[in-house]
Amino acid sequence: MKTEEGKLKDRVKLFLKQLGAYYHMSVPVGYGRPTVDFVCCVPQWHNGGRIGRFVAIETKAPGNEPTANQWKVLNETKEAGGIAFWCDSYEGFLLQMAASGLVPPPSK
Questions:
Q1: What DSSP string runs through the chain?
Q2: pTM surpassing 0.85?
Q3: In this structure, is residue 84 part of a structural domain?
Q4: Residues 81, 22: Cα–Cα separation, whole Å
Q5: How far is CA 104 from CA 13, 32, 44, 96, in A?
Q6: In the chain, what is the straight-line distance between the N-terminal and C-terminal CA atoms, in Å?
Q7: Is there a domain that residue 104 lies in?
Q8: How far apart are CA 80 and CA 48, in angstroms?
């Protein structure tokens, strides 16, 4: 049976696929640089053409927050001009995607 975090990751993967985004999920083995759950290129339309936005996403079980290393990756991504956020629910993921300008805001 999947954990709550595993279920959230599955929903995020499906959403990213539906957007036509590229994403990579690293397998943690203790070598190399730390990373977050999803490293993505999310397509957007801009001035009549399609561009890709670099996005880093950390997913967590409800009530949990990123580790110090994960915060570091999220902050470094933002400092480099990318979009970076974390979420502990699918609704939070959708709100973050909308707040980042990657998708329209959810309708109420």
A1: ---HHHHHHHHHHHHHHHHT-EEE-----S-SS---SEEEEEEEEETTEEEEEEEEEEE--TT----HHHHHHHHHHHHTT-EEEEESSHHHHHHHHHHTTSSPPPP-
A2: yes
A3: yes
A4: 18
A5: 18, 36, 11, 11
A6: 32
A7: no
A8: 25
Where do we find the tokens 């950390």? 58
Residue 108 domain flag: no
**Res. 30 pLDDT band, cuts 50 70 90:** low
Structure confidence by residue, pLDDT tens digits, 72-99: 999 999 999 999 999 999 999 999 999 9
DSSP one-letter code for 107? P
